[in-house]
Amino acid sequence: MKTNISLPRPHWILREHTAALLIALMLAGCSTSSRGRASHLDDNIDLSDENLALYEQKRWDEGSTIPNAMPGELFDDIQFEYDSSLIRAESHEAIRRNAEALKSDTTLRVEVEGHCDKRGTSEYNLALGEQRARGVKTLLMNYGVMDDQISTVSYGEEIPLDPSDSESAYAKNRRVHFAVYRLKN
What architecture is domain 35-182? Predict the structure, then answer.
């Protein structure tokens, strides 16, 4: 008498592994850093945890919706095209200058934040923001910054610079933001 043994079909195994991988990636993308951070460096500012919190609060109180570097200075945001994580050629020089600043002071750390416009699903935008952040991290490392000086996080569409529905707003929101902080001694 034969016993029928049902073995899992290959496509079911693939589906189960794919689902587990997607869940793991989504959970990994939800992590954030609780470290103190500043949006740009100012030699006149003491970046202790207490002063950093006051500094960030002051920037928010002054009307800035998102703490941000001044255009043209170190750690200015890097912009991206729609639905792309490709780093524009004109952004390479700014990233190189950021790398030089990080290499010159090994107590500096940067969290590279990936952001997207609100078009697309939340899951897709989290993944795209992560690709953008990791791409910039890779370029910083290619310019000689140590891996332990850089962390990445994706906020997807959750923290827009401009919440309006226009092409110019969408363009502002497709970015990588540098949150820079100094390690305590």
Answer: 2-Layer Sandwich (3.30)
- Structure tokens, 166: 């226009």
Q: Could you count the other beta carbons within 10 Å of the beta carbon of residue 29?
A: 19
Q: How far is Cα of residue 61 from the mean position of the Cα atoms in its chain?
A: 24
Instruction: Let me know: does 47 contact 38? Beta carbons within 8 Å.
Output: yes
Tell me the per-residue pLDDT of 139-182, one tens digit each, with 9 for 90 and over: 999 999 999 999 999 999 999 999 999 999 999 999 999 999 88
pLDDT, one tens digit per residue, over 18-32 is 445 445 444 444 444
Instruction: Judge contact between 99 and 143, C-beta under 8 A.
Output: yes
| Displacement of CA 6 from its chain's centroid (Å) | 46
Instruction: Please report, for the chain, the start and end positions of each structural domain, with discontinuous segments joined by +.
Output: 35-182
Residue 149 falls in which region: left (phi positive, over 0), alpha (psi -120 to 50) or beta: alpha
